[in-house]
Amino acid sequence: MSRTVLMPISQPTQAPYDLQSPRRMALIRIWDAMFRGARRYVEANGFVGVHNMPEIVGVTGACENIDTLFKVDYFGKQAYLAQSDQLYLELITPYLKRVYAEIQSFRMEPEADDRHLTQFALFEIEHLGDLDELIGHLTGIIQSIAAMVASDCVAELAHFDRQPADLPAAVFQRITYSEAVEILQHDFPDLAWGDDLKANHERLLTQRFGPVFLTHYPLPIKFFNMRQNDEDPRVVNSTDMLLPFAGESAGAAEREHDYQRVAERLRSSDMYHRLIELGGTDADFAWYLDAHKDKDVPLHSGAGIGMARVAQYLLGLADIRQAVPFLLNSETLL
Amino acid sequence: MSRTVLMPISQPTQAPYDLQSPRRMALIRIWDAMFRGARRYVEANGFVGVHNMPEIVGVTGACENIDTLFKVDYFGKQAYLAQSDQLYLELITPYLKRVYAEIQSFRMEPEADDRHLTQFALFEIEHLGDLDELIGHLTGIIQSIAAMVASDCVAELAHFDRQPADLPAAVFQRITYSEAVEILQHDFPDLAWGDDLKANHERLLTQRFGPVFLTHYPLPIKFFNMRQNDEDPRVVNSTDMLLPFAGESAGAAEREHDYQRVAERLRSSDMYHRLIELGGTDADFAWYLDAHKDKDVPLHSGAGIGMARVAQYLLGLADIRQAVPFLLNSETLL
Description:
The structure is a homodimer.
Chain A: H1 22-44, E1 48-49, E2 56-57, E3 71-74, E4 77-81, H2 86-96, E5 98-106, E6 119-128, H3 131-152, H4 154-158, E7 173-176, H5 177-185, H6 199-209, E8 212-215, E9 238-243, E10 247-254, H7 259-267, H8 270-277, H9 286-290, E11 300-306, H10 307-315
Parallel strand pairs in A: 1-5, 7-8
Antiparallel strand pairs in A: 2-4, 3-4, 5-6, 6-11, 8-9, 9-10, 10-11
């Protein structure tokens, strides 16, 4: 073992941010506790970790907006960096019943601001069962994360002017999108049912409700395979998890599991139309659709949790750039 | 909860391999146990998990051969997909003392054969201390992985004709590169001291020794910052971990921690000459070198463990394509 002593940083580095500050070291330890907390919940609840998930993908690795995919020349084929491995996990779920994956999600977002990253850690879960069960798992994961950080990171929290007692208890409210729109229309009279919610809408809702699950979004503004509600076909059985400071921190839904319906939903989605415009075809989703054909795929649900947003919530940080151990946005290539 | 029953697969899919076979499900569970085993060792030994590590990087994310980097157009800048996050971890190690990271390593390898992948899970560790300590940690990690798989995956091992009792005990031999060359020269008379070892050389060594740490490679054929041996300047304080069925499964070494020496070593390395040929400059390594300037960086060591190769070893698989939950090589984009 070395007996040399590390001296404090005396030179400015050419790195785009200080990798070696005490605050960053504290942040790394907090993230370690966050992941240990999340893993503790999923392991205790029978989720199987899926490793080596594809990060170089076809458009099946896209998450809503295929225009924000980073491109990779893959031996002459057009490939992309994954935004979500949801569709890959879905194929496994009927067999392993509860699965999770820790992936990096890539977004070609040119804005280098307080809300955008080009790479972030996504904690994805997928399981048999419905939206209610899914909301239970999300709540359990966030609570387990907060508990691990509170117990293991007393000194580290001080770098963020937090004490364990300050950590939010993560008791979630639950309201529907329709209820939210009604509430929001007091302050945003131009907001109409069917509009997607923006950061300022989310902020008002978390100020009023604290952490909140916003359920049953309008079908057209959500991912193609979110399952349509049986009673109200205008909406899907989805939820966005909104957290104070961070806004939307998880997208979650029941998945359409009937072959005919999921194929129709794909072909009527905005994403699909954009795919065709860009020269894509049905074949781009063939392996996913084929896995539903002539099979009785059980009801399953899943979510992707943006861990940087969870860190914002726990640490009370309005700027996502302050919440990540390594910062990757359009200005910070290292 | 759904009451539908999943039917067996009746249709061939257009996927390049069967994602839903019972053998693949067993493999996913085995990998889950492998990672839980590795994490159990590092957590019990005070390693801090570093998350959100950069996967889109400059050439500092390269691992020896910069010609095998996948390129990404990063908002007009040339970027790459990471092969190793070693240099990033090294900057943290003086502060957190023992760190680990689970990353995806990308290699633009056109060969789609039994030894090559384009993406694989790399379990990286970095810690204060020397090569002997590093070899101890690697041994501990492999033993912990094998123990977890043996205890948790009895049914899954049967898919690979293995029982827990078949799992190798992971008692490692340790020989120097020079000793290995002498041994190999009986069968490979053309092999000269200074040559890099190939798969057939590694195979002969693991057949004779079982799992083995091959230490003290010649300086010119190894990564630029592997620390030169004090007694024999021809070699570095490195080790390759060779595993039966898999061959080289971890590269590991003490790191040069003196600013002048590491800068000289970089500039005299083959990698650097290739970088200059390709239009790179000193500035590509500035943040890393700057973090050593005028500082008393303590001795540290680290390794990257290829988890697919560990799976080959545990399961007795000569073909790496059979050992990964998701297969990514030049022929299998999904």
